[in-house]
Amino acid sequence: VSLVLLTTVVLSALFPYLQRKSSTVCGCDQFAAIPNTPASWFLFSLLVISAVYIGWVVLRMITMLWQTHRFRRALVSQVSQTTSYQGTPIHTVTADEPTAVCLGYIHPHIYISASLVDTLSGFEMLAVVQHELEHAKRLDPLQRLLLQALPSVMLKRYAAVQEIIADEAVTDRP
Question: Which of the 8 DSSP states describes residue 107?
């Protein structure tokens, strides 16, 4: 949001200068109407930095989408059983490592490895499912995708807060 505001301010400051007609005879010097002052160079540099930053954020989002797609495709190929709990699909996958993950941006699905199902008791398994269900309800995967604009330190802290919220949702249930 702040990035959009910054870009809007920069463009609104440069807009009057871009509307002026060029004073050259041939009319081919398009940027002669923009004054060569430190303030205009500062605004132009802010515009360039904003454009580069937006490009970087979009690239991070595309990378995350691609990695999630590849991971989900690998999990889908290992699905051995599918069920539903509170309207959310839960897939059991034949992975060797104990894993429970919530994937999907609009309609999240929960993937749980068979090794985790074999390891945990019924009560522990219910807690894991409810934890992942809380991520699905809150659309945490979508939030993480949209928050790629944050610096990585803040993004890691936000992810940790999401985990704490999901844990508290499970432990606070009667």
Answer: S
